[in-house]
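Hi everyone, sorry if this is the wrong subforum. Our group has a chain we'd like a structural model of before ordering constructs, and none of us has done structure prediction before. Sequence below.
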Amino acid sequence: MDLRLLGRVDYGPTYAAMQDYTATRTADTPDALWVCEHPPVFTQGLAGQADHVLVPGDIPVVASNRGGQVTYHGPGQVVAYPLIDLKRAGYFVKEYVYRLEEAVIRTLAHYGVTGHRVAGAPGIYVRLDDPRGHAPLPQRPQKGATTGTPDFTGLGKIAALGIKVSRNCTYHGLALNVAMDLEPYLRINPCGYAGLPSVDLSTIGVSVDWTDAAHVLSHKLQNHLQP
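Answer:
Right subforum, don't worry. Here is the predicted structure as C-alpha cells:
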C-alpha cells in the first residue's frame, strides 16, 4: 500500500484527486492510503440534509458523494483516505467498514482509550465518564438484534466514517479527532444527530501531537486493510 502523508491540504482538491485516482486506476494500480488534515470545512454526504447545518458562519459547506450526512474537518484531526481495490483485497463493503473501525479502535487502545461501536451508527465512540474503561456497551452491535434508533447516552464521537465505492474501489474514509477546536461541531447536527457530543483525544486527557497520531493510525490501517 502506497502511504502518503500529505500534511494540511484543502478538501476540494483532495476530493478531486481521489476521484481521479479511482476513475483512472486499473487492475494493476497499487492501493494507496492518503493521510492529511484539512482547513476548517463542513462536508455533506449523499444523505445530507440542509437543516442539519445549523449556523455554518465563516466555514464553507462542501457537497460530496460519500455516504452519510454532515461532518466537520479541521486542524488537529487526522483524516485517512484509503484507496482500496476491494475485489483484489477479497472482502466486501461491510467488512471494509469493520476493518476501518477496528483500526481506529486499535489506535485508541495504543493511547489507553477504549473505543466503542454503536449499533446503527457507523464511527467510533468513547464513554465520556470513563474513556479508559473496558466494559462493553449495552448499545453495541449484537448478532440477531434489531437495529433501532442509535443510543448515544453517555458517549462522545471521536471518529467519523464516510466512504464511497466505485467499480469495487474505495475512496473517502475516516477522521479521528486528536487535538481540535471542537466549537464548529456545535454549528451542525454531527452525522445527522442533534446534540451528539464530539470529543477528541485532548479533551479526554490524552496529549499527543498530530504527527504521532497520524503515524499510529496509518500503521493500524495498513495492517487491518491487508487482503
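For your construct planning: The first strand starts at residue 2 and ends at 8. Strands lie at 2-8, 32-37, 41-44, 61-63, 71-73, 77-83, 116-118, 121-127, 155-166, 169-177.
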